[in-house]
Amino acid sequence: MAIEEHMLKHSVAPLKSARIWLSGSIPDQADPTKMKAFISGFADRVFRAGGSIVHGSQPAIWPILVERAAAFQAVGGSRDCLTLAVSSRYTRHSAQRIPLDEWRQHAVVQEVPATDEIERQSLDRLRSWMADRSDAVVLVGGNWWDEHAGRAGVPIEFELARERGLPSFLLAGFGGAVAGYLDASPEILDSLKNGLDETTNREIAIDRDPDRMVDVVLAQLLRLPLVRGEPAGGASFRILALDGGGIKGTFTAAALAEWERLTHARIADHFDLVAGTSTGGILALGLGMGLEARDILSFYETRGAVVFPLTSLRRKARYWMRSLFQPKFPQEVLRQELKMAFAQAPRRTMHESICRLVIPACHARTGAIHLFRTNHHPDLAADRDRVAVDVALATAAAPTYFRAAEVNGQSYVDGGVWANNPVMAAIVEAVSRLRIPLNHVDILSVGTTSEPYSGRHTLRSGLAGWAWQGRIITLLMHAQQQATSELAGTLAGRARLLRVDQTLVPGEVSLDKVASISDLRDYGREAAGHPDIVAQIRARFVNGVPANRWDGF
């Protein structure tokens, strides 16, 4: 009995969460029988061992992989056992029909956005995407070596893997570009980083027996520490991060509702971790408690004017005068409105959440940061029985707008004072607390609209100039947002972070400008419905592969 079959029999998946990049194609001049046998057998064994295969949708190979994935899923396997990546250059401009709908029945499909119409650059971006999301690479066959070695993809993809330190296996016995590349550069056997010596790698490279090659490569993959940290259980650990922004949360709610409409799926079912600050915290908690995004959008549309009751000039003046000496709005109104909104939710407390939650707040008395979290770790039992409405009040208690919120004798203010964009808090939670490998994280970060910042009026300002119209607050929030996005993209990798936001004319919207609710809704739908964004959402996030159930403590 093969080692992975023995482990599976005892409920162990030895390649759990490991992603194997299958690079190559079936050479035109080669006998395809043996190579097809290898691909078919290799896919079967990887799937059964709990791993997944990433492939660039080569026409001669994808039908084999889809067939084996379908067979695996017919006996209970997950659809994310196979990821087919393709450049949007081909899905949108190719005369040959790309069967995306057929692929999606048995695979996760990733349309990698093309930067331009230059084929080589589009292919380079596709290859980098696959390299960034893989834990090992198996290179086999490949075309173009004899006709135009510079166009051969296998050498390029091997170099991308080598740059990232990925364990590599060169199978040159089936011919093609791998064989030509190895003949031209035999020294590459020294840099495969697959745990085998040069002699063994040479034997693997010239072997032509597909069954033996499947055994040898799988046996070594099983020995390697491919997934550093705690395996996520699926091909990726999906994070949803929702910014703060008062009534501008209408934009976010509209975007989420649009994605649910387009995918016919509930957002919360597809994310392993949801983080939200302030209005984003209300959204995150609503999703976790089982509300659909359209229900939360309805809350903003119908009750936003009640929470932020600015209508006539006379009332605006009264609230402005009030804000000089006490919070601008009565918190009791927000509490009552949240109770009414969450009353529709089938769940009430943090430990009942559909997904793991991270909700930033700040201790009002000490200024210490605080994270309300579901009990997804043994050390996080303190918030287990917290009522969602109380947590929502704490994260949304924006200074000057609402008084500090009381939760179990502690006073909290808005988490936006330190994490208005909670994406870094979410990444740190996933990597440090849940031990998710950083290269397995996929992040969807949704803003609440932004506007260009101009500091020309404050270049020589004193206290009055900086205080006028909240200029110092605007700068701090703008800088925090920019820093968080920049750091998150640098840490996780730009390709793993999808940011959805919209830049508006300065002053068009604000945290409490209820007159802009309908505009914010329309902007959110527009941003969410952009074809490139929809393709990313369907491929990476709301892709029909549910998030694994989380264990509470």
Q: How does this structure look, described?
A:
- The protein has 553 residues and is of the alpha/beta class.
- Helices cover 43% and strands 13% of the residues.
- The chain has 22 helices and 14 strands.
- Strands 7, 8, 9, 10, 11, 12, 13 and 14 form an eight-stranded mixed β-sheet that branches. Strands 4-3-2-1-5-6 form a six-stranded parallel β-sheet, sandwiched between helices.
- The longest helix has 22 residues.
- The protein is elongated, with a radius of gyration of 26 Å.
Q: How do the strands and helices of this protein lay out in sequence?
A:
Elements: H1 3-9, E1 19-25, H2 32-48, E2 52-55, H3 62-74, E3 82-87, H4 88-93, H5 100-104, E4 108-112, H6 119-132, E5 136-141, H7 153-163, E6 168-171, H8 177-184, H9 198-206, H10 210-223, E7 237-242, H11 249-263, E8 273-276, H12 279-288, H13 293-307, H14 313-323, H15 331-342, E9 356-363, E10 369-373, H16 388-395, E11 405-407, E12 410-414, H17 416-419, H18 423-433, E13 441-446, H19 463-467, H20 471-492, E14 497-500, H21 517-528, H22 531-541
Parallel strand pairs: 1-2, 1-5, 2-3, 3-4, 5-6, 7-8, 7-13, 8-9, 13-14
Antiparallel strand pairs: 9-10, 9-12, 11-12
Helix pairs in contact: 2-3, 2-10, 11-13, 11-21, 12-16, 13-15, 15-16
The global form is: elongated
Unreliable runs, pLDDT <50, ≥5 residues? Answer: 6-11, 309-327
Secondary-structure content class:
alpha/beta
The number of distinct helices, counting runs of at least 4 residues, comes to 22
Strand runs, count: 14
- What Rg, in angstroms, do the CA atoms define? 26 Å
Helicity level, as a percent range?
40-55%
Ends distance: 37 Å
Tell me about the largest β-sheet: 8 strands, mixed
What amount of the residues lies in strands? 5-15%
Mean pLDDT: 86
